[in-house]
Structure formats: structure tokens, C-alpha cells
Amino acid sequence: MNKETIVNAGQNVARVVGYASTFIPVGGPILAAIALLANEILSLTEIAEHNKRICRNLSERVQTANQLLQNKMLTAERDNVALLNYQKALERCKTFIQTISKTSSLIRILTAREIERDFNDVTRDLDLAVGELGLQQIVRTREQVRRDNQMLRDEIKESLQVIEKALANIFDAQMSVQTKMEVLDAKLETIHSAMTHVDDVHIMPPNIESTRISSARVTDVLENGLPVVRGNGMIKKKIFIAQTVAEKTLGYLRSMSRTLSTIEKQVAILTELRDCQYIIRFYGTLQRDDCLCLVMEWAEQGDLYTYLHQVPNLSWDFKIRVATEIASGLVFCHTFDILHHDIRSHNILLTAELTAKIGNFESARKDAEDSVIQIPDLYLRYRWLAPEKLKDYANTKYNKQCEIYSFAIVLWELASQQLPYNNIESTNVLTNRVTAGHRPPPISETPEVYQQIMELGWCDYELKRPTAASMFNTLSHLKPSNGRSQLDIPSNSLLTLYTPISMPTTPTTEEGTTGYDRNPSKGGQNAQKTATGSPQEYDTMPEPDSTQVGISILRDSHKPLGISDALGLHRQKLYAQAWPIFEALAEQEDALAEFYVGYYLYSGKHTVRHDPERAVEYFKRAATKGIPDAQLRYAVALLEGVGVEMTPETNRIGVEYLIKAARNGNSNAMYNYGELLINGLHVAMDLAEGEKWMRMAHDRGHPSAYRTLADRLKELGQAVPEDVSESLNASV
């Protein structure tokens, strides 16, 4: 940030963050710098790929501090010193958010085991700085510090789980988490180094030379006495080491001197991505008849575009599986900061087993590169191009959000088996329509969650688009049934699409958590309530990946409002508008709407009168249709006698639905069922089975599972498993 920028910002600081202009003479340039830093922190939070809650927590503290500064009279010299310290704290905060919100830098800091130390340093400095400014209400209590550190651990765990799931096949089964991080870090370093190295002096760049295969080892395949060719004869089916491959001719070497550096980058990318089972495998390069060729995996079924148009009425099982495989490949690319630049159905290839793999990396670049590049045959890509690129292609940098938009259009292609905007031939007309907010029409029988993730992906406001990891996580849990869908595990992501949330089962306690004590030694069924869940409620749940505040997706004005509309209004806290939609859809027996009607009636908030009896009826309706969160709510109501009379029969049914919710992946249900088992409440005591469910709850991120298990085992005079003790000690 140069001096001129700071001075100019100081002149407009009231507009930027609301500082009164009378404050400018005292630390004016500092206030300007603080204003810009606050905005930069907010922007970084909006585009964060990981650890959204931690980033949002830091950002909200900064924004609150800046608002409180409006009422401070900054006149003394010590105020300038305090402002300087605050500015430095914001700079460290910005750097930390940059580090933990991006996959590649997150991997590096995790590998170095520095993340928790850095977080504590950053938050401590921020506490000290706001304290010096007299903003004591921003300084955290010990309990808030503890919760922040737990939030960090939980978020890091979630990030690692998604990364590990998407990149599973590059790890050996016995690798520790630390070793896996080191493998990823080494691969990041290798690919960035290879892609950065361009030496035009060499006739044959090192990346190409190191992947050279003897042309004699790649032999012809004949069918009916003729070679098998695709792509205007530039791709030929061959045999290499007893497997079918594609030999793709790039051109004559003597005419490629200007493009060798680009090909070298493509080879570098393909070399490092060949560990991913959902990216077309690269075997090497060869020279044949003075031509440079790539040797790739052969896609027997051709490209997805052709397949969708040749095979009608494909099942949703196929469509969801293919969507998940593409998302996995995209996560792999984005983890290593690689942008494909041409995600569309033509570049999704299908193997003989119909496994989808991303291919054609000719236009691929590093995310850090200047990604405003000239693309050949750009007119072919317009239907998949993000609106911000269509508006100003030459001056708009291509980024991951652009790629997410393209993937969302591919999701629509899968749903419809049609060409996007097939009634528009003019690129000018198409550009005008897309930049005005028009999107492909809804396709009947599209699963609700699939529709939601697709619409978020093509959102006009790029910062609201989810990450590839978020989309992969959602799609990988979709289980189609009769054209509809539900998320299997974790069940709560059905409601948030991204971040699994734990539902409170009773009004929150002083600690902000919920549940009931199952320890018979403390009073059995009438025991005092203790913490078993998370403090999250559906109206305060964490926002999904790209700050899903105010979803704005163009819809046809005549289209009836659906569950996604109601959920969008609910997330925007427009409860009075969401309620009648939920209520109307519940009367049409929409399971998710029935759950939300029950939730509104149970909570007694959102302009709806508290009515536990009716709430239980709606929870029951949704629970019988397989909504895991409704199963949990219904179970707790029966077991606690909320809205119903407690009887042995209601207890039996309550346990039955608690088990269903647990088996459907609800972490709170896992925890509560495990607690019933280890205490012998409503069920026969079974420590081994209870421990199993407590471990499952812990693995799903439940914060109290191991502590409760350990306490109960100690009460019974039994040894606490070593891994449970180690985990508890590590979290202290």
C-alpha cells in the first residue's frame, strides 16, 4: 500500500468504514490504512476456500472494532500509538486469513505444525490492540479463547477430511496425517516449480524431455483392419505396455518453437495430476515422424457431451456419480492451484466403465498466473463461460469462481442432456442474456439438493459460488431415489449444502450447548441437563462456503416457489416470508418443509407461536420420510416428553428413531444414542456398543463425545482407551 493510496483513502475514509471526518487529523493516514485493511479482510473472508468460520470470526471482530471506533475521540498521542498497534494487528490478521483460507498455503502451514501457534499469536495481538484502544468489549474472555481454539481445530479437521477424501488415491493406507500433508506439500512444490520453469533456449524443454517414451513402445490398434482415430485424425488409439492409450499429435516440432513453453506447462500439469483417478492419465511424450505427441489414457466411451446426446434417459444414479467424479477431479486441480480454463462436457471423457475424467489441459494455468489469456476457439466456450468473463473477457482475470460456474453449467447438461441455451445461436445474444442474469431452465425430476448446488454454482455474484470441495462434499453424499434426493452422511448438509451442523435437542444451557445427562448416578431420567450438543440453531447456522447471504438466482416469474426458495429466505433470516412457503409445501407432504414447519413451531420464534404438540406431529411426518434431523428431533421430544406424554411406548419409539437418525449420519444422534448405551438409560447398558457410537460421533466432529465417554468409563472404574486420552489431552 503506497502513501498516495493511504492519503486518498483517508479523504474517503468516512465512506469506506464510517469514520467521522473529525478523526482524520488524529492518525488520519493510519485510519485510512485501517479502513482498507478491514475491507481487504472482509474480501478475503468472502472468497475463502477453507476455514470460513474462523475467517468470519476474525473479520466480524475487526468490523465491530471499527464501528466502535466511530464513537472514540482519538486526540492524544497515545491514541496514535494504539492505532499503529491496531494496524499491525490487522496486517497480521489479514496474512493469517490469506494463509488458512487457501488450500495450498493451508497445507504448508499444517505441514509445519504452525497453524495453532500462529492463530494464538494473531488473536492475542488483536486482543491487546483493541484493549489499548479502550474497546474492552472486543477483548475475548478465557471461555471465548477456548471456543475459538476448538473452532479452529474443528475447521481444520473438516478441511482435512474433504482434502483427504478427494485426494485419497495419492496416499498409502498406512500414512499418518502428517505424512499425508508432507506428500501434498512436496507435490505442490514440484508442480509449481515445474510450471514456473520455462526455458526457451532449450529446443526440447526439460519437462518434455523427462517424460519421453520411445515411439517403438507405442503400437497401433487396428479395428476391421483400420486404425481407430478421433479428433480430426489427431488422436489415435494405441497400445502401450499392454494397455490401451491415446496418442495425441500436437504438431511438427520445427514449427512449435513459440509454443513449446506452453506445452511444457501442460506436460508439467499432466505429470503431477496423473495420481488423480478422475483426471485423464498422462503417460508421457513421444516423437513420431518429426511430430510431438502426448500419450494419454484412452477414453473408450468418448466425451460426455456426445454420450449425453446419444444415450437418452440416463438414470440419476449415473448423473450424480458422474457429477461427483468431475467434482473430485476439479478439487484435485484446485488443491494444486491449477485452473483448467475449459470445463465443459466436451472435455469430460468417459472410460469403458463410464468413469468420468477431466481431459484436455491445453489451456490450463496456475491460479497465481495472469489468467487473462487468449483462448483459441473462444466462441465454442461461450455457453460455459462465467458472466464476469463474458462482460469483459480481456480485463477480467479467470479464477476458481469462473471454473465453478462452468461446472454448474455441466451439472445442468447432465440433468437435461441438452446443449445449454440451445435455442440461442448468436454469441452476442447469449452474452447479453447471461450477463443479464438468465440461466438454463429447471429440469423436472432434478433432485432438490442437486438443483441448489447447481444454482449456487452459477450465481451471478461470483463470491457466493461454493468451492469445488464444497460441491464435491455435497454431491458425494447424494443418494438418488425415484428422481429425488437426500444427503446420506452427514445428514445436516442437506440443509446447509456445505457445513455439517449439530442440532440442539433442547433449549440452550448456560454454556450454549444442549442435551440431557444420561448418568444414572446423577438422577436417572430426571437428571439435570448437561451439554451434549452444539449451540447451533437453524436460524444461526454457519453460512455455506461463499457467504450465502441473500441468494439471488434468476427464476421464471411464473415458476411456483419451492423448497429452495424457502430455504434461501430462511438463510437470509426473512422468516416471515419463508414460513408460509414452508407451510404450503408441508401441506403438499414435502418432507423437508414438514421438518422446518416443526422447527418453527418448536422454537416459537420467527413470528410463529410456540406449539410443541403440533411441532412433534410435523417432526414425526418428516422423520417417517427419512429426514435424519427430524428423526433426531422427534426422538428427543418422545424421550423428554416435549409435546407428548411420556410412556414406555413413547420411550421405545424415541429410541427407535434416535437409532435411525444415528444410522443416517447425524452426529448428535450418534452421541445421544451412545450415551444411552453407556449409561443403560431406556436401553440395556452396552459399553462396547456405546463406545462405538461415541467414536463415530467424535469422528463426525461432536465436541463432547470423547469427554463423556472417558468420564463414564472412569466412573465405572474402567480404563480409558489410549487414543481417547491422547485426543483429550491434545485438545486441552
UniProtKB/TrEMBL annotation:
Region Disordered, annotated ranges: 500-546
Bias kind Polar residues: ranges: 522-537
Gene Ontology terms for molecular function: ATP binding; protein serine/threonine kinase activity
Biological process, per Gene Ontology: cell surface receptor signaling pathway
InterPro entries hit by this protein: Adaptor_Cbl_N_dom_sf (IPR036537), Kinase-like_dom_sf (IPR011009), MLKL-like_MCAfunc (IPR059179), MLKL_N (IPR054000), Prot_kinase_dom (IPR000719), Sel1-like (IPR006597), Ser-Thr/Tyr_kinase_cat_dom (IPR001245), Ser/Thr_Kinases-Pseudokinases (IPR051681)
Pfam families in alphabetical order: MLKL_N (PF22215), PK_Tyr_Ser-Thr (PF07714), Sel1 (PF08238)
Keywords (A to Z) from UniProt: ATP-binding, Coiled coil, Kinase, Nucleotide-binding, Transferase
Bilayer-spanning residue ranges: none
Signal peptide: none
Ranges for domain Protein kinase: 207-478
Coiled coil: 135-169
Ranges of compositional bias, category Low complexity: 504-515
Protein name: 2815_t:CDS:1
The organism of origin for this protein: Paraglomus brasilianum
